[in-house]
Amino acid sequence: MAFTANTMFEVTVSDSVRNQTQNIPGKYGTYSADTYTAADCDAGQLCTRAALIPNEGYEGLGEKYSNNNILNGNTWYMIAATNGAAGGAYGDHTGIYAFNNYDVNKASDGQGNVWNVGANTLGLGLPGGEYGDFTEIIIGEQYTFGVGNFTAAPTMGTSLYATIANGKLTPSASVPAAGTGVYFKILRSKPVNEGITYWGDGYVLEAARTLEAAAGE
Known about the structure:
Layout: E1 9-13, E2 23-32, E3 35-38, E4 46-54, E5 71-80, E6 93-99, E7 106-108, E8 114-116, E9 132-138, E10 142-146, E11 161-165, E12 168-172, E13 182-194, E14 197-209, H1 211-215
Parallel strand pairs: 2-5
Antiparallel strand pairs: 1-10, 2-3, 2-9, 4-5, 4-6, 6-9, 7-8, 10-14, 11-12, 11-13, 13-14
């Protein structure tokens, strides 16, 4: 497994307790021509839904189902978000999700066997082919990401915004151009601890959307 260093994701200010569909399960990778290819997923990786995952144990049960499978109701193959418009949703919902890990450390032998090895959870990635949780980005909510989630480290006071490109955040000093769709305002940096141990600095971002996308609601 190969994950990017210093990635993380934390819901910082949210209405997610009441909005129960904001968190969904899924597997990360690529998806093309109805074929899913597993890949490792960093904490905070920005994703979109590609297709529903077949309900395990009920594969190949008839042509009236997609790919001859009974599909799970809300469990998805997730792929990297191409840009801020990739989610295809308007209003407060974005259709863009961040991998949000609640699990423990895992080790894999590359042969389909995975073991839990430890208790730390902050910044852990999702091994390819494993199920994980993904949190939809909601306009106006605040989230904390690690420096590894950016294509370049933000400079506080200069990097005021961040756009989405291939699942990562790109810092910018300028308001994103019309047509960008979902982007983030970089509000502040803060130290992040796991237990009593300093983990590193995180960046608190507020989700926003360019106006012309919101007007198309």
